[in-house]
Amino acid sequence: MKIVAPLNGLVLAGGRGSRLGRDKASLDYHGTSQARWLHGLLAPRCARTWVSVRDAAQAAEPSFSGLETLTDAARVVGPAAGLVAAFRLAPDAAWLLVAVDMPLLDAAALETLVASRDPRAVATGYQHADGTAEPLCTIWEPAAADLLAAEGSPSLRRVLEGSNVRLLEPAESHWLKSVNTDADDGAVRAFLERRAGGRAG
Q1: DSSP letters of 157-198?
Q2: Which of 4, 84, 157, 180 has the CA that lies 20 to 30 A from 136?
């Protein structure tokens, strides 16, 4: 019988937000920074939760005040740097990884993911409408650690595409919306305003 690994949480926040022109972790859609918002969503569902950062200077910014941070792995490029660092910290844990630029994730999205977790797979995650795997809202099992270590700067999506994974269709397509540009930011804010207006009515 397979022992199910404990589940830790990781908010991936080490990116520079070059296209957006500002740190995505500091974006505020819910009355607090994205780093703090997503940490708050993960914490009740995970044994421990960290926020990955690129360096000590970023960790010292107000967005991360009071949060447990983990510095990205050196010489690893892209989103994999945070996950590689997480597995180095706790190789026997599974990691529920979410990108800090996903402001429309909610409790239901994470609860569905955790409830659908397959510890026999390399990962359990969501797929987009076109069938493309979304690596940045995914539970990565300990078996993924060796796959990541085999490459210098692995593409997380390619790891998913070449592995035994469980992929789910999101109940709400907006869950996987990411903010990369000013247009994305405006679209998300307009969506949240419409939703708030609907609830008020």
Answers
A1: HHHHHTS-EEEE--SSGGGG----SHHHHHHHHHHHHHHHHH
A2: 4
